[in-house]
């Protein structure tokens, strides 16, 4: 049998954290599980409301547990779908890419080291662990772009006078 699953879900204040959590309203409290079995990585949706997707394909209907799905190098996993709460808050999905069987990079690429003033190959001083623990993508950049797009759409929409 496989390893103990890594449970994935939504962050709740005051909860003991024994799983990978995200602070997003489209992630269910118990959303999905990841585990390895005989060297293969698997994922399944655990009855989430807004879905678990692999390469844009939903694993199961809302509220239904999916069968295990084997992940491969390059697969894109998405948890939930964007949802706008009226005109107030936009709840964002979480998306990440699976990388397996790749050699780790021993040194910094020239374009990375030349873009940073220190040109140091030791990047540990530049990681903000609190931020990196909460961010798996260019989430803020995408959110800002979506906000700009929505403002542009509002400007183009005809107004009733």
UniProtKB/TrEMBL annotation:
SMART domains: FHA. Residues 127-138 have a biased composition (Polar residues). Residues 6-59 form the FHA domain. Residues 143-161 have a biased composition (Basic and acidic residues). It holds the Pfam family FHA. Residues 107-161 are annotated as: Disordered. It comes from the Eukaryota. InterPro entries: Cent_Immune-Sig_Mod, FHA_dom, SMAD_FHA_dom_sf. This is FHA domain-containing protein. The lineage of its organism: Eukaryota, Fungi, Dikarya, Basidiomycota, Agaricomycotina.
């Amino acid at each position: 049998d496989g390893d103990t699953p890594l449970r994935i879900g939504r962050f709740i204040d005051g909860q003991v954290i024994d799983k990978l959590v995200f602070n997003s309203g489209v992630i269910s409290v118990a959303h999905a599980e990841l585990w390895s079995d005989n060297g293969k990585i698997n994922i399944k949706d655990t009855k989430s409301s807004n879905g678990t997707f692999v390469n844009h394909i939903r694993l199961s209907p809302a509220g239904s547990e999916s069968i295990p799905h084997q992940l491969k190098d390059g697969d894109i996993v998405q948890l939930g779908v964007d949802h706008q709460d009226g005109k107030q808050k936009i709840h964002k999905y979480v998306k990440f890419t699976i990388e397996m069987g790749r050699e780790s990079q021993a040194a910094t690429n020239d374009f990375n080291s030349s873009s940073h003033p220190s040109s140091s190959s030791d990047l540990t001083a530049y990681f903000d662990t609190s931020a990196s623990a909460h961010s798996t993508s260019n989430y803020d950049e995408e959110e800002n772009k979506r906000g700009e797009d929505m403002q542009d759409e509002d400007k183009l929409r005809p107004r009733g006078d």
